[in-house]
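Predict the assembly for these two chains.
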Amino acid sequence: GDSVTQMEGPVTLSEEAFLTINCTYTATGYPSLFWYVQYPGEGLQLLLKATKADDKGSNKGFEATYRKETTSFHLEKGSVQVSDSAVYFCALSYSLGGGSNYKLTFGKGTLLTVNP
Amino acid sequence: NAGVTQTPKFQVLKTGQSMTLQCAQDMNHNSMYWYRQDPGMGLRLIYYSASEGTTDKGEVPNGYNVSRLNKREFSLRLESAAPSQTSVYFCASSVQAGGPGAKNIQYFGAGTRLSVL
């Protein structure tokens, strides 16, 4: 079945360090890929997405590129801030035209802590 | 600017008690979802409703029931709570379930933290 594997945490960085959180997926067909972020005490928020191969999603300085050849969607940021401390989830979904043929599969999440 | 609202935020139950978690969205979305979040497990889909009047099982439906009361509201019921149902529960909604583009992006509520003793 479909699955998402992401880097186990926790990840601890100093402010202004470079961030990479690895995400790989297993799926039949051509899923859409997402990164969601969960700040302490809150629900999940969409961070960025990509819907087809070679698409790059970006938001708030974060980027991820849909790599079909390596089935990966790694999250990167050039210079992290204390306010980026959160749990990050990689996820995939199928675009099958709607209706009941829907599934969104999450990875287990990666806790990022950024120290000043 | 409410988005997805869940009530209650916290709940403690004894084994065997029942309760209903409420969820409402004000974005005129067609599809709604219930997830549970457990340490080291990520989010797992319990039930979803692709449109008003329909519900379908997700990955972990056992021990739960749902009701899509109207387009805005989607409730999750635990008929006889068990300690294994101790978790954080999230409701989410999207314009539609599946499909290309932005319409399947899910928006989440702040969660209900449930403890079953």
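Residues 24 and 71 of chain A are 6 Å apart (CA to CA). Confidence is low (pLDDT under 50) at residues 96-101 of chain A.
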